[in-house]
Design a protein that fits this description.
heterodimer, A: alpha/beta, Glutaredoxin, B: alpha/beta, FAD/NAD(P)-binding domain, 2 domains, seven-stranded mixed β-sheet, five-stranded parallel β-sheet, about 25% helix
Chain lengths: ~110, ~325
């Protein structure tokens, strides 16, 4: 599955009410390390089809979600399950780390 | 044996090494935390030969595409350990291991941390290593920038546009740096330069609340009430995990000779993580090319195809 674009309008339905674990990459277009994180998350999305939902959230487009979960540094990746933030990872993450975090929630 | 050559790092050194090694038909794996490293963060590169101007991100992606086109494989992971066995090198990441005949270390530099209490715990909760990334989260808040170099000054100039108050904490007695930047910062009404202090602790429970400072000479202490602490104290090679394997210099840089050979036969090193004289992208790329050719020669010699290079008295 390709990555999902999350925003304040679809956050509840796509993230909080999802059945699968959901990995959200909080990013901004002006953040250099976020641009490096982007392709890693996109690759991950394709690899975990059926096991997790993976997508990104532009903090400029969805300030409410970023604020609600206390995002003060980007990239930040939060993995949700059952409407709750289960893991928060700050800074650039490797695909291996993200896969391991998702596996913990499987 | 999984691979002929494993390259750790995907900056100019690692990616160039991959292209050169693939052109010699070595089976190559690149293991890296990200593609491009510091290069990908450069807004504009104007000293890459043959290119008037290009963003670092685009240049990094061009190099990656080139390495992929030549058939290099990539893994996004952090290498934690290299083990030398009789026949090969075993490279371990968090969840996997790979083996190869030769290794090139080309993982560049990593931002330094302060190493004070509270820092690690409050990363992402007010502690930041990237002013341009995280500055906008501190609009109308108070922040401190720690660091004596130009990157600290650039962070202050940027943050002063967003925050109500910016403190710059420097160890030096005098406020120095690029003269234009110094002049600009001196003219900003919401910036206070705090000289002769070092950061001793970042306090806060769920987020940063204050930065504790100690005077470098007297017993004087100061507390700054801030919402954010930006650490801008430069970069260093992250080589602690290599101690006991390859020789490092006093700065923690990997010691590599002019053929990029390290103290261990079969391990080569290139670019900013080494003791190379200048930390420049084009130099790192050149060193990466040398490392690939040296590794090729080493692998060929092991297979009995060419004479073994002389490693002198090395391990």
């Amino acid at each position: 599955m390709s990555e999902v674009i999350f925003n304040d309008a679809n956050f509840e339905a796509e993230v909080l009410k999802a059945d699968l674990p959901v990995l959200v990459d909080f990013f901004a277009t002006w953040c250099g390390p976020c641009r490096m994180q982007g392709p890693i998350v996109a690759e991950l999305a394709a690899e975990v089809t059926g096991q997790a939902k993976v997508g990104k959230l532009d903090v400029d487009q969805a300030p409410a979600a970023a604020q609600k979960y206390g995002v003060m540094s980007i990239p930040t990746i939060i993995i949700f399950k059952g409407g709750e933030a289960k893991a928060t990872l700050v800074g650039l993450q490797t695909k291996e780390v993200l896969k391991a975090e998702l596996a913990k929630l499987a | 044996m999984n691979y002929d050559l494993i390259i750790i790092g995907a900056g100019p050194a690692g990616l160039t090494a991959a292209v050169y090694a693939r052109r010699r038909e070595l089976k190559v794996l690149i293991i890296a935390k990200s593609v491009g490293g510091q290069m990908a963060l450069a807004h504009e590169v104007e000293n890459w030969p043959g290119t008037q101007s290009i963003s670092g991100f685009e240049l990094a992606n061009n190099l990656k595409t080139q390495a992929e086109t030549w058939g290099a494989e990539f893994v996004s992971a952090e290498v934690l350990q290299i083990e030398k066995t009789a026949a090969e090198f075993v490279i371990k990441t968090d969840g996997a291991q790979y083996s190869s005949e030769a290794v090139i270390l080309g993982f560049g530099l990593t931002p330094k941390d302060l190493g004070v209490p509270g820092e690690k715990e409050l990363i992402g909760k007010g502690v930041s290593y990237c002013a341009t990334c995280d500055g906008p989260f501190f609009r109308n808040k108070k922040v401190a920038v720690v660091g004596d170099g130009n990157s600290a000054l650039e962070a202050v100039e940027y943050l002063a546009k967003l925050a109500t108050q910016v403190y710059l904490i420097i160890k030096a007695k005098e406020f120095r740096g690029e003269s234009i930047l110094v002049k600009t910062i001196k003219g900003l009404s919401n910036v206070e330069v705090v000289c002769c202090y070092t950061a001793t602790e970042i306090s806060g429970t769920t987020k940063v609340e204050a930065l504790q400072l100690a005077h470098i000479e007297s017993a004087d202490k100061r507390e700054l009430v801030v919402d954010g602490v930006f650490v801008e104290i430069g970069q260093a090679p992250k080589t602690g995990w290599l101690k006991g394997l390859v020789d490092l210099n006093e700065r923690g840089e990997i010691i590599a000779d002019k053929l990029t050979q390290t103290s261990v036969e079969g391990i080569f090193a290139a670019g900013d993580c080494t003791d190379v004289g200048f930390k420049q992208m084009v130099i790192a790329a050149g060193e990466g090319a040398k490392a690939a050719l040296s590794a090729y020669k080493y692998i060929a010699a092991k297979a009995g195809k060419v004479a073994m290079p002389d490693w002198g008295g090395k391990k």
